[in-house]
Design brief:
The protein is of the alpha+beta class and 194 residues long. It contains seven helices and seven strands; from the N terminus they run ααββααββααβββα. The termini are far apart.
Length: 194
């Protein structure tokens, strides 16, 4: 017959004799339960925080905006910003460098006349920071020739061969990828080299 090892479940005789030690034992068990509850609430709070953080990152992602001006419909700027006002500020800072209507104190008035429009279709280009010129033409924008500056070309002009989109790293402005050449400039710059 095998003897089973004795388990010592017996507590020290001191606890039975000393009521303060019984209270200490109860407090110790209560603290352990409290720690387990706190641990559960910590993990649920951490889960909520992680969900909030993911939502905040989604909200802070850069979005595409087209900036136009109420007093001059010929001026347009596309930017990728985290807020509407930042987008408007980006356009003003860009034009302040060279455009005569934005110099000195006039840029403050232009800031107030700036109109912002969200273009979710361009959000996919936010990481690049530039929209391909062909996409802009498809959306109805017009561009003049990047070589001679003459004419205004549309997407239909590209389709019939009146102008050519060149994507070789040179851009017409900071928000477009590529540039446009009329047929004559295209022949002059590219056909001669062939």
């Amino acid at each position: 017959m095998k003897e089973e090892p004795r388990q010592n479940n017996r507590k020290s005789g001191l606890i039975g004799l000393n009521p303060d030690l019984k209270e200490y034992e109860r407090e110790k068990e209560a603290k352990l339960i409290e720690i387990e509850d706190a641990s559960d609430s910590f993990y649920s709070l951490k889960q909520e925080y992680d969900n909030f953080k993911v939502g905040a990152i989604e909200k802070k992602r850069k979005k595409a905006y087209v900036i136009t001006f109420a007093d001059d419909s010929n001026i347009c700027f596309i930017t990728f910003a985290k807020s509407r006002d930042k987008a408007r500020g980006d356009a003003i800072m860009y034009f302040r460098e060279f455009h005569p209507e934005f110099t000195d104190g006039l840029w403050k008035q232009k800031f107030l006349k700036a109109r912002r429009k969200r273009v979710p279709a361009f959000d996919r280009y936010a990481e690049l920071g530039k929209v391909p010129i062909l996409e802009l033409l498809k959306r109805g924008m017009e561009f003049s020739c990047g070589g001679c500056g003459k004419d205004k070309f549309t997407y239909g002009d590209v389709q019939i061969g009146r102008c050519h989109v060149i994507e070789d790293g040179f851009e017409m402005n900071p928000f477009t990828q590529g540039f446009l050449l009329c047929h004559n400039c295209y022949k002059r710059f590219f056909k001669e080299k062939e």
